[in-house]
Structure prediction request, 94 residues.
Amino acid sequence: MAKTGTANISIRMDADLKAAAEELFEELGMNISTAFNIFVRQSLREGRIPFAISRGTPTEETVAAMLEAERLAHDPAARTYTDVDEMFEEILHE
Prediction:
């Protein structure tokens, strides 16, 4: 990549996010400009965003609930209900 000079860009971000990023990058020995340049160079090398972008990882509680739901779905002894009213009727009379 030929060096052709520099260009300025402007990025808007939450002030707290910027402060946290500045603190992290300073600990890593760089500023936001250097970090952004690293990000862009890596993106160009890989031809993509250089990390996975997702909705997030489920919490341990969510994973446990999903596993329990899966277990109950395959448990013939698990109590089932035909509607919400039936479920609440049983819960309230226990």
About this structure: The first helix runs from residue 15 to 27.
